[in-house]
Task: structure prediction
Amino acid sequence: KAGVTQTPRYLIKTRGQQVTLSCSPISGHRSVSWYQQTPGQGLQFLFEYFSETQRNKGNFPGRFSGRQFSNSRSEMNVSTLELGDSALYLCASRRGEKDGYTFGSGTRLTVV
Amino acid sequence: ELKVEQNPLFLSMQEGKNYTIYCNYSTTSDRLYWYRQDPGKSLESLFVLLSNGAVKQEGRLMASLDTKARLSTLHITAAVHDLSATYFCAVDYVQGGSEKLVFGKGTKLTVNP
Result:
């Protein structure tokens, strides 16, 4: 059974650029959530999508956005990158509200 | 806003010893998760605790949930080196019809021979 797939695994970008990260959930999972992990702030919730609708958004600036497609795949976009955006970005999926979350391998973004 | 506190944040123990990691949270929730993370890796699901009094065991790890005390514990029995990792608890926070996981800061466990 395929797990949650995130691409790319590693990314190096320059300040001011924008980046798009991709997440393919487990087949049949309609909910996709995104989290940012940094040494200083730990794991923080970014947003959750369910059936192409954003259901919840964390306390991040508007430079962080996302979307979900009809096949449940999700993308996260960060515009005007800052050094502080360097982090491991984790995507998680679950079948429904009563189910647990499965995390992908993450995308490690480095902003230089 | 829900706050999740884990302690200790760092734990160094000898192989063969027992220890408990604690996870306290500030707002009512009846769903709690434990994850393991190895350096540079993603989060591996260990336990999903869905109700008060839930107890789950897998190998040398046992997790429990007391929703009234807002406390979960992860007990390690006869630790082995392979258990060295960072352990996170995460609580489901439901507010206004939306839901998210709120994580503790993690407990970095080092098991020494």
